[in-house]
Design brief:
- It is globular, with a radius of gyration of 19 Å.
- With 262 residues, the chain is mainly alpha-helical.
- Helix 3 runs antiparallel to helix 6.
- Helix content is 79%, strand content 0%.
- It has one domain.
- InterPro entries: DUF2189.
């Protein structure tokens, strides 16, 4: 799928999203994953191992609430986690060489560009979510003991625990909305074009604001699939993370093409 030529120094026009566009993006993503699974499995494998490490540390130290915060917060950074896969899909679209050397060279080349700035902002927001989540835990549960998974579940199922989960989900939803809106189109746009991060974030947020219902549906799908992928010991990320990474690029590319057709 070739995108039309356009200025690379300003945000492109993006076409209206709908179910057909989402379905095509997912179909192309699945095709990319099947054609070059080694890239997706390598990227997602890193995050599976990190998930296991976090789980082991939190259970061993008796701080299982951190595991819940990590699971709820991972969808915040999932799009950035798959940036290398954007380049894989882009190269397949352009019929460019698809080798580890080429993909890693392009990914490393971004270290002096705008992508790391947005990535740093996403990580900072993720860490702030951890801080805020700990404050919410203290506010609702105080010194409630949580020495292992069993006692943790007992605490979460109390009235205060359920209230904390509800309030934490609401706060996390606000974080997710802000981060999703400003990054869903900005991340692939920064890979595709030589523009500054603020311009890309404004363009992305504007796109979501103009098309709130379909784009929020897309965001909920990303969050839902990510959470479901975490449930079976993070192993679901081996498929879900590559699928969503490739799909994120294709959604952007298809929106650019559709804008020229409207």
């Amino acid at each position: 799928m070739d995108m039309p030529a356009d200025s690379v120094t300003r945000p492109p026009a993006l076409g209206r999203p709908d179910r057909a566009l989402f379905a095509e993006a997912l179909a192309l993503a699945w095709s990319d994953f099947r054609a070059a699974p080694r890239f997706g499995l390598a990227v997602s494998g890193v995050y599976v191992v990190l998930g296991w490490l976090i789980a082991w540390i939190t259970v061993a130290s008796g701080t299982t609430y951190w595991l819940v915060l990590a699971a709820m917060g991972f969808p915040l950074i999932a799009p950035f986690a798959a940036v290398a896969l954007y380049d894989v899909s882009r190269r397949m679209d352009l019929r460019q060489p698809l080798t580890w050397r080429a993909v890693l060279a392009e990914t490393l080349a971004q270290r002096t560009g705008q992508l790391p700035v947005l990535g740093a902002a996403m990580v900072i927001l993720f860490l702030f979510w951890f801080f805020l989540g700990h404050m919410i835990f203290a506010l609702f549960l105080g010194l409630s003991p949580m020495t292992n998974v069993s006692t943790g579940l007992d605490v979460y199922l109390t009235a205060n625990g359920l209230g904390m989960l509800a309030f934490g989900t609401l706060v996390g939803g606000v974080f997710a909305l802000v981060l999703f809106s400003t990054s869903v189109m900005a991340l692939p746009m920064l890979l595709d074009r030589d523009i500054d991060v603020i311009t890309a974030m404004i363009a992305s947020a504007g796109y979501v604001r103009r098309h709130p219902v379909p784009m929020l549906g897309w965001g909920l799908m990303i969050a839902g699939l990510t959470v479901l992928a975490i449930v079976p010991g993070f192993l679901g990320l081996l498929v879900v993370l590559p699928l969503l990474g490739h799909a994120s690029w294709h959604l952007y590319a298809l929106a650019v093409v559709r804008a020229r057709q409207e």
